[in-house]
Design goal:
By secondary structure, the chain is of the alpha+beta class. It is built from 16 helices and 24 strands. α4 runs antiparallel to α5 and α6 packs antiparallel against α7. The two termini are 54 Å apart.
């Protein structure tokens, strides 16, 4: 008989491997066969809710069961199927209805006898009680954790997340002090300089970011972006000495606020001066006074001349002066610099505002501020996951660096052997030296490319970890922004620097198998978290889905960030392809259609809607 494994684990790889090893031994004990493609599992945190949607591993398991791809399901622990009693009971019942026996190792219980094919008496009752017990245990743990956090916050200590820039933890072994925030002298000096630089006459967020990066970038090994400067300038506890922390009671879901005392770094007068300037300071990304403001105003740039795209009202049908969408006058964006003879720009691309706003807002929610909805437990788990990934990348970088050193030593040895060789074997030694040199130089170049790619990915993950460690958005930020266009625009402006749209002319429609030369768009989105490539078919009417992939993995060779080593064209270079798809190739060249498939495989999709 063929056994399928259902796995559920936290952020640690060891937990996943332990479950697989345990279930593999169990399958052998029962005399079942098993295979890697019958392992259904994923790293998961938070709560299951079958009333909304099954998690991916459960859905894939049920699909495989329908196709008769296995005979039994083995689960190491009841909680690995679900931590929600209702969802767990539902999954068990669905598999029973499919005549699939399920065995729970921790309670030694089958739902169906695999030999007779008959339902095991009281099995559902026993398993249901186990689901209840697992849920109560987890609830108890959350209560204990919340109680411990309340005690910490009452004593001016914060153990969750990293201290905001300018602070560090007291440290040591004294439980009454070790998690208190104290001033980090080096970082605090930067904070003071940020405020002093920004309040200077003529200074902007951009000029401040450049000045601070020039002064402290090497010391802190980082680039101080506009977003970083903005976060520093808006962190009021720098002057109040009070950090407000919200904590949700897991039993009542009531939200308590704690005022935690921290040292001040700047004066109230300095903070107010910077705040006043921020409220009145105009930047180039702000529309002119008489120009209507849209969510993406001044963010959309022409990929040819880099001028901001201009919004235009769309003409109506059947005698209507303007076309209406979402209850408003429909807008399209286009570059007018060439038309107005300001430049010789030849761009004639036009983009629908309504589709574009929905897609960009979807990207913001999914990739840039999705962390705002996480509770403290999930936030800690995410930080641990990112830390593990960063550590792994650092190990890989160290390994490649070490390999480069080894190649240098091989070259030195080959050269020494060549120079010291007797005349009788001089030609042989010379030939061996040049072969060694060529081979080692190629490997060194390959290692350097990998180090560069891994370093870029490490920086992206470090930025994400900073997001999770230093949340500055309230939990209802998305909800409030969606009801207020001004708040939505402000959020988008903080997180996105610019967007370059490109018209794609090589996309092949899956419905007609023909090339579509109109309505296919690629967006090159420059964000606080790096570049994202967003792909969508503007001709879609029913299934409105956009696809996206980080610039760490994919580079558009007709874009502004293209690789010089490859020819220009409407295709993508996938760096370290093994990270995003099943292949043995380090780098891949893929078409628009192939990139969409990669995005779908990884779940990088944005469902967007707009009303006609």
């Amino acid at each position: 008989m063929r056994a399928a494994f259902l796995i559920r684990c936290s952020t640690k790889k060891q937990d996943y491997e332990r479950q697989v090893n345990d279930l593999t031994r169990l399958a052998k004990k029962f005399g079942y066969t098993s295979s890697d493609n019958m392992i259904f599992g994923e790293h998961i945190t938070g709560k299951d809710d079958a009333s909304k949607r099954d998690r991916q591993s459960i859905q894939r398991l049920k699909d495989a069961a329908i196709n008769k791809e296995f005979d039994v399901v083995l689960v190491s622990e009841v909680s690995r199927m679900s931590r929600d009693p209702m969802s767990g009971r539902l999954y068990v019942r669905q598999l029973i209805n499919m005549d699939i026996p399920v065995y729970f190792r921790d309670i030694d219980t089958w739902t169906i006898d695999p030999v007779t094919g008959k339902k095991v008496r009281d099995a559902e009752t026993i398993i249901g009680a186990a689901f209840d017990a697992a849920w109560k245990y987890i609830k108890s743990m959350k209560t204990q954790i919340a109680s411990g956090r309340r005690d910490e916050l009452d004593n001016n200590q914060m153990s969750i997340g990293q201290p905001f820039f300018g602070y560090k933890r007291y440290g040591g072994r004294d439980k009454g002090k070790k998690n208190s925030w104290v001033i980090n002298d080096d970082a605090a000096k930067v904070v003071v300089d940020v405020f002093e630089e920004y309040v200077k006459d003529g200074a902007t967020l951009k000029s401040t970011a450049l000045a601070i990066t020039a002064k402290y970038g090497e010391q802190f090994n980082k680039k101080f972006s506009i977003g970083t400067i903005e976060h520093i300038l808006t962190f009021e506890p720098y002057c109040t000495g009070i950090k407000v922390v919200s904590l949700t009671d897991p039993d009542t879901e009531d939200v308590d606020e704690f005022e935690v005392e921290i040292p001040t770094i700047i004066t109230r007068a300095m903070f107010d001066k910077a705040t006043t300037k921020r409220a009145t300071n105009r930047t180039a990304r702000t529309p002119y006074p008489k120009q209507a403001t849209y969510i993406l105003s001044k963010l959309l740039k022409c990929p040819i001349c880099e001028h901001s795209l201009t919004p235009q009202k769309r003409g109506g049908d059947k005698g209507d002066k303007y076309r209406l969408m979402n209850g408003k006058v429909a807008i399209r964006w286009s570059c007018m610099s060439g038309i107005n003879n300001a430049t010789d720009c030849s761009s004639r691309i036009t983009i629908s505002n309504e589709k574009l706003e929905a897609i960009i807002w979807g990207l913001v929610k999914q990739e840039l501020i999705g962390f705002a909805n996480l509770n403290d437990e999930d936030r800690v788990a995410k930080v641990e996951e990112l830390t593990d990934k960063i550590t792994n990348l650092e190990m890989n970088i160290a390994n490649f660096t070490s390999h480069i050193s080894n190649m240098d030593r091989l070259i030195e040895r080959a050269y020494s052997a060549y120079m010291d060789a007797p005349d009788s074997v001089m030609d042989i030694a010379k030939d061996k030296y040049y072969k060694t040199l060529t081979k080692c130089e190629n490997e060194r170049a390959e290692c350097k490319d990998k180090i560069e790619a891994l370093s870029a990915e490490k920086l992206r993950l470090e930025n994400m970890r900073t997001f999770f460690n230093q949340p500055t958005l309230p939990k209802d930020a998305i909800e409030k922004a969606e009801s207020d266009p001004i708040k939505m625009r402000n959020l988008v402006m903080e997180l996105i620097d610019k967007i370059y749209p490109y018209r794609i002319t090589t996309y092949v429609s899956s419905a007609t198998n023909r090339i579509m030369r109109n309505g296919i768009v690629l967006l090159e989105v420059y964000t606080i978290n790096g570049i994202y490539n967003v792909l969508y078919d503007g001709n879609q009417r029913n299934n409105k889905v956009a696809y996206y992939i980080s610039g760490v993995y994919a580079t558009f060779q007709n874009g502004r960030n293209k690789f010089d080593a490859y020819d220009t064209g409407e295709y993508f270079v996938i760096s370290h392809a093994t990270l995003v798809t099943e292949t043995e190739d380090v780098d891949m060249l893929v078409t628009f259609n192939e990139l969409i498939k990669i995005c779908m495989q990884n779940g990088w999709e944005i469902d967007y809607t707009y009303k006609m």
